[in-house]
Amino acid sequence: MAEHCYKHKVQYYETDQMGMVHHSNYIRWFEEARVDYLDAIGLPYKQMEEEGIGSPVLEMHCQYKSKVTFGETVTIRVRMKSYTGLRFSVVYEVIGEDGKLRCTGESGHCFMTMAGRPLSIKKAKPEWHELLLQHAGEE
């Protein structure tokens, strides 16, 4: 799976006084799309947590291109950019109903035990490692 598409219908509460989506909501949409993507590739976030593994956000970048408004349904294209066994990065493109690029982003993550210790998935979960390798850096 080189790219996964997630759809989100913009809710009224996500907009600001100027009638456009408030910038903070794009970060939430990225998280929704990332969790959906992990589910789609066979690594549900709920399962990771049940097995005592977390994946905190280490960094987030977002570049806004054009506005999104209430009632619009956007498509968020998501794919894994890189994976090292301990860290991974995900890239996002928010596309409007008109096909125009509205926003791009990238998030960086690591794997940790729920106690807060860094965790090498390569060592701790070799089957997950192989799954992630299959999706990392696909174009």
Spatial order of the strands forming the largest sheet: 1-4-5-6-3
> Can you identify the CATH superfamily?
Hotdog Thioesterase
CATH-defined architecture: Roll
Shape: elongated
CATH class: Alpha Beta
Supply Rg: 16 Å
Number of helices: 4
Largest sheet: 5 strands, antiparallel
The total of beta strands comes to: 7
The overall number of domains is 1
Could you tell me how far the N terminus lies from the C terminus, measured between alpha carbons in angstroms? 9 Å
Overall mean confidence score, pLDDT:
95
Strand content: 25-35%
Helical amount: 25-40%
Short description:
The chain has 139 residues and is an alpha+beta fold.
Write the layout of secondary structure elements.
Layout: E1 4-9, H1 24-40, H2 45-50, E2 53-54, E3 57-64, E4 73-83, E5 87-95, E6 101-110, E7 112-113, H3 121-124, H4 126-135
Q: Could you characterize what this model shows?
A:
This protein has 139 residues and is of the alpha+beta class. It has a single domain, classed as Roll (Thiol Ester Dehydrase, Chain A). Helix content is 27%, strand content 35%. The protein has a 5-stranded antiparallel β-sheet. A two-stranded antiparallel sheet has the order 2-7. A hairpin with a 5-residue loop joins β5 and β6. The chain starts with a strand and ends with a helix.
